[in-house]
TrEMBL record:
Residues 76-263 form the HD domain. InterPro entries: dGTP_triP_hydro_central_sf (IPR023293), dGTP_triphosphohydrolase_C (IPR027432), dGTPase (IPR006261), dGTPase-like (IPR050135), HD/PDEase_dom (IPR003607), HD_domain (IPR006674), PHydrolase_assoc_dom (IPR026875). Gene3D superfamilies: eoxyguanosinetriphosphate triphosphohydrolase domain-like (1.10.3550.10), Hypothetical protein af1432 (1.10.3210.10), putative deoxyguanosinetriphosphate triphosphohydrolase like domain (1.10.3410.10). GO terms for molecular function: dGTPase activity. Keywords: Hydrolase. It holds the Pfam family HD_assoc. It comes from the Bacteria. NCBIfam families: dGTP_triPase (TIGR01353), PRK01096.1 (NF002205). The keyword Hydrolase applies. GO terms for biological process: dGTP catabolic process. This is Deoxyguanosinetriphosphate triphosphohydrolase. Its EC number is 3.1.5.1.
Length: 462
């Protein structure tokens, strides 16, 4: 078993002043004084994300339903904006609590708005690493290396930890990679990066603790382990196991914002599409609203969409209040590292949210349009990985098989794709990560279009 670096041994509680560090891995020394005064470091994080190409690409990536036969159906981009809005509310409200409880925060220049900005930025980026076709896309990439001949052909050339990464594609870890990459990373603050990382561990660990939510998935690939170690050292994050870290407390708010939005808004979309009746939707939301619900006021709205919008807003507001209360109650345990659950699992409305989740699986996530989209995603991503992986393998590792077809395929890779210094004596893990970056970064439409072309199903201009 790996030993814990001495510098990272957890000797006590985390502290908020250290956790809210505004430093970055790479400081831009060219900032003018007006730039540093007009925006906080955390507001700059938000702006960097929202103007980035990977974030813009989310406008054409699936949230749940295929894109976009209906203009009201959520994409990854609209979902991320909504999660960020809820995250800001959660962060601001808990920030009011924290700056009152810890006077040192105000003395060091930290305000509740700063805490809201951190959560908003991390929540805005929470899906930035997701591939085309949603969770089906994640499974398709993993399945390629687990089951396809031109996927597992790479296994002899990489380490066991690297192979575990390749066989378990994770959107959260891909997101961290995109945010910290030396070439194209957004160079966010330490606090925002840590709040983004809901699963602060690598893919391969000695032992998972099923009672810790942060162990459920993983948050960084092995080639970015050092970046997370440095981040943990700077912020004072302790270890939950030799290979894993305690969550940054604000990561619980990012998770809650996501849980609240997809639970309520996926249900709203399902109702709008006719997969769930309005009466059933109303019953589920009223269970959360309780005495706040007034049928008479709802009756003032004429259309179903108007009624759904009002119910959604009220329900999200109620869940925000409950999540803030839960955070404040558990905050000291978070600093100790002893609390590791989803906030939405311990709020008063937890049982109602579980009912919504069960119904959503039955009637929304397993509906015919969603299943058809997932099936297409498997076919498209496997097909793209197959043709590019085979061509790279033939060019560098099985050179006797390298063909004119392979040459043609490789010309479709981005101009900056690293095509030098590979071969049987070189570990291809960085090469494969670049290939996965290329394919996972595609929009749904571009992935489908390119798949049709490389498979000869469609020709340019025809």
């Amino acid at each position: 078993m790996d030993t814990i670096p001495v510098a990272l041994v957890f000797l006590g509680m985390m502290n908020w002043e250290q956790l809210l560090s505004g430093g970055r891995f790479e400081i831009n020394k060219n900032l003018t004084s007006s730039e540093t005064k007009s925006r906080s470091e955390f507001e700059r994080d938000y702006d960097r994300i929202i103007f980035s190409a990977p974030f813009r690409n989310l406008q054409d990536k699936t949230q749940v339903f295929p894109l976009p036969e209906h203009d009201f159906v959520h994409t990854r981009l609209t979902h991320s904006l909504e999660v960020s809005s809820v995250g800001r509310s959660l962060g601001k409200a808990t920030g009011d609590f924290l700056v009152q409880k810890y006077p040192g925060l105000q003395e060091s220049g930290i305000s509740s708005s700063d805490i809201g900005a951190i959560v908003a930025a991390a929540a805005l980026a929470h899906d930035i690493g997701n591939p085309p076709f949603g969770h089906a896309g994640e499974e398709a990439i993993s399945d390629f290396f687990n089951h396809h001949p031109y996927g597992y052909a790479w296994q002899p050339y990489v380490t066991q930890q690297e192979w575990t990464d390749l066989c378990n594609f994770e959107g959260n870890a891909q997101g961290f990679r995109m945010l910290v990459s030396k070439e194209n990373g957004l160079k966010l603050t330490y606090a925002t990066l840590a709040s983004f990382t809901k699963y602060p561990r690598p893919a391969q660990i000695f032992e998972k603790n099923p009672n810790r939510k942060s162990h459920k998935k993983f948050g960084f690939f092995i080639d970015h382990k050092k970046e997370y170690e440095n981040l943990a050292k700077i912020l004072g994050l302790g270890h939950s196991s030799p290979e894993s870290y305690f969550r940054h407390p604000l990561a619980f708010l990012v998770e809650a914002a996501d849980d609240i939005c997809y639970s309520i808004i996926d249900l709203e979309d399902g109702c709008t599409l006719g997969l769930v009746s309005f009466e059933e939707t109303l019953s589920l939301l009223v269970e959360i609203l309780g005495e706040k619900f007034q049928q008479k006021k709802l009756s003032k709205y004429k259309t179903t969409s108007q009624k759904l919008a009002v119910l959604r807003a009220m329900t999200i507001g109620q869940l925000i209040d409950e999540a803030v209360s839960a955070f404040c109650e558990q905050e000291e345990k978070m600093l100790e590292g002893s609390f590791d659950q989803a906030l939405t699992d311990i709020i008063p409305s937890a049982q109602a949210l579980e009912k919504i989740s069960t119904l959503s699986v039955q009637k929304i996530y397993r509906s015919k349009p969603v299943l058809e989209k997932e099936a297409a995603g498997f076919q498209v991503l496997e097909g793209l990985l197959e043709v590019f992986s085979r061509a790279l393998n033939h060019k560098f590792y099985q050179t006797d098989l390298y063909s004119g077809k392979d040459k043609s395929i490789l010309r479709l890779l981005p101009e900056d794709f690293p095509m030098d210094n590979w071969g049987p004596r070189h570990n291809p893990y960085p090469l494969l990560r670049e290939l996965i970056d290329f394919i996972s970064g595609m929009t749904d439409k571009y992935a489908l279009s390119l798949y049709r072309k490389v498979k000869g199903i469609a020709l340019p201009g025809v």
